[in-house]
């Protein structure tokens, strides 16, 4: 059974210094979207593994061995550890998920906050990085437009709607400031 206090205590330092679009609130938004996906899909999954991977996805690329050590200390089996780590990696936006939990977490990560959120997150993250609006729009053009993809039948139409909205926003703002 998941020890929420131990999990929160372990992950909190990893999210403490992240910007407002990548902190623990981000985890909550992705969790809400994953819950929404699970409520419409008829999926039989290990929700505990999904939750753990969700909390780890923001630093798996930097601290995988520390995550594995924590999971071992929490007495997860080697097989469970491998599965949790795989889900966390598959949640990354550039990964093509192979397993169901990976697809759910990946798609929830892409769709967090809904169609408008993609634009808001890009703008705020650019601002936090000290970019000008023009630099952020160039980043959006190169790294966001047409780059988001989902893999579940329930999420593909949502992703298409988000991508269309983001494309229209980019066109409108670019036209307005040119």
Structure summarized in a few sentences:
With 178 residues, the protein is mainly α. The protein has helices at residues 4-16, 24-40, 47-56, 60-73, 78-90, 100-111, 115-128, 133-143, 156-177.
Secondary structural class: mainly alpha
Q: Mind describing the biggest β-sheet?
A: none
H/I helix tally? 9
Cα(first) to Cα(last) distance is 56 Å
What is the alpha-carbon Rg in Å? 17 Å
Number of strands: 0
From the spread of the alpha carbons, the general shape counts as: globular
Task: List low-pLDDT spans.
Answer: none
Layout of secondary structure:
Elements: H1 4-16, H2 24-40, H3 47-56, H4 60-73, H5 78-90, H6 100-111, H7 115-128, H8 133-143, H9 156-177
Helix pairs in contact: 2-6, 3-5, 3-6, 4-5, 5-6, 7-8, 7-9
Explain how this protein is built.
By secondary structure, this protein is mainly alpha-helical. The protein has helices spanning 4-16, 24-40, 47-56, 60-73, 78-90, 100-111, 115-128, 133-143, 156-177. It is globular, with a radius of gyration of 17 Å. The N and C termini lie far apart (56 Å).
List keywords for this structure.
178 residues; mainly alpha; 9 helices; 0% strand
């Amino acid at each position: 059974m998941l020890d929420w206090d131990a999990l929160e205590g372990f992950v909190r330092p990893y999210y403490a210094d992240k910007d407002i679009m990548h902190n623990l609130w981000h985890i909550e938004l992705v969790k809400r979207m994953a819950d929404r996906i699970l409520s419409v899909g008829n999926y039989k999954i290990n929700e505990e593994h999904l939750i753990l991977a969700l909390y780890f996805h923001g630093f798996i690329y930097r601290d995988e061995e520390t995550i594995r050590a924590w999971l071992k200390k929490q007495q997860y089996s080697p097989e469970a550890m491998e599965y949790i780590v795989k889900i966390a990696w598959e949640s990354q936006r550039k990964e093509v998920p192979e397993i169901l939990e990976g697809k759910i977490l990946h798609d929830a990560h892409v769709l967090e906050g809904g169609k408008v959120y993609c634009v808001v997150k890009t703008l705020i993250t650019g601002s936090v990085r000290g970019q000008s609006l023009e630099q952020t729009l160039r980043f959006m053009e190169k790294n966001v437009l047409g780059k988001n993809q989902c893999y579940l039948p329930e999420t593909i139409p949502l992703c298409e709607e988000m991508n269309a909205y983001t494309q229209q926003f980019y066109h409108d703002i670019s036209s307005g400031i040119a």
